[in-house]
Amino acid sequence: MPTPRQQARITWLKGADFPCEQFPEPQSPPRHLVLLGAPGIGKGTQAELLARKFGACQLSTGDVFRIAKRAPEEEKTPAIREALQYMKAGKLVPDSTVVALVEERKSCLRCSTGFLLDGFPRTVFQAGELDRILRQEQLTLDAVLSYDLAEDKILERVNGRRVCATCKISYHLTDHPPKVAGVCDRCGGPLYQREDDRPEAVHVRMETYLQSTEPLIDYYQRKGLLVHIECGDTPPVTFARTMAALKIKA
Ligand code: ADP
Predict the structure, then answer these.
(1) Which of 14, 161, 162, 241 is flagged as catalytic?
(2) pLDDT in tens, 107-116
(3) Rounded CA gap, 199 and 173, in Å?
(4) 97 φ, ψ to 5°?
(5) Which residue has its alpha carbon closest to ligand 1 atom 2?
(6) Which of 38, 131, 191, 226 would bridge with 162, disulfide CB 3.0–4.6 Å?
């Protein structure tokens, strides 16, 4: 059973055969934003805060794969099974699979509430494909937010990250622990460490980020869309910086 938050972006999470029944309040003007940042930097948390502020959906490709992972084996297509193997190892899923998945969810890009793309694009090829899809849909990006933090600090964050299996919110063992160890404060669900947050996979994800995703910073800089946001502080401070960068009151 999807949670209410998932229900509000069910088309994104499950595909075009699952029309959304609940929409967040549309904002004017709708924002069309891309979020970039190394794994574990806290980009997902910022996406959630932005989603609440703007009423737009957090379109996370990682979430799509995590939902697909929980589906019964017989519902998994060969492409999804292959994608999940890459994900487990911390590697990037092939561009063709990810682009097909986004293409199938184009209606989410057209949504009147705008969008917050989180985790896509991840390669220059994917960025080109996103440009193509947006052109077809007569949409343009407003900004690309690049969340920045030194690598050792990122590793500390990832090592301590625990996620609620039910409602997906994140905790940190020392910086943001739950009231009862291993139990979500909000919904009582069990907390777990993501498979790709284990040290072996984190190392691969960092390398992949540097090789495949950092070139996107140049790509969007050249297009005049890039906004750098330092995120060494708490999530609310980073959020206030994001709002300031977008010249909006938090
Ligand atoms: P992170 O916490 O590393 O930012 P995500 O939740 O965005 O991770 O994604 C988890 C995993 O899903 C990635 O490590 C990768 O295997 C896969 N994935 C998600 N988005 C993409 C993408 N755009 N291109 C390729 N692989 C992706």
Answers:
(1) 161
(2) 999 988 899 9
(3) 15
(4) -65, -45
(5) 39
(6) 191
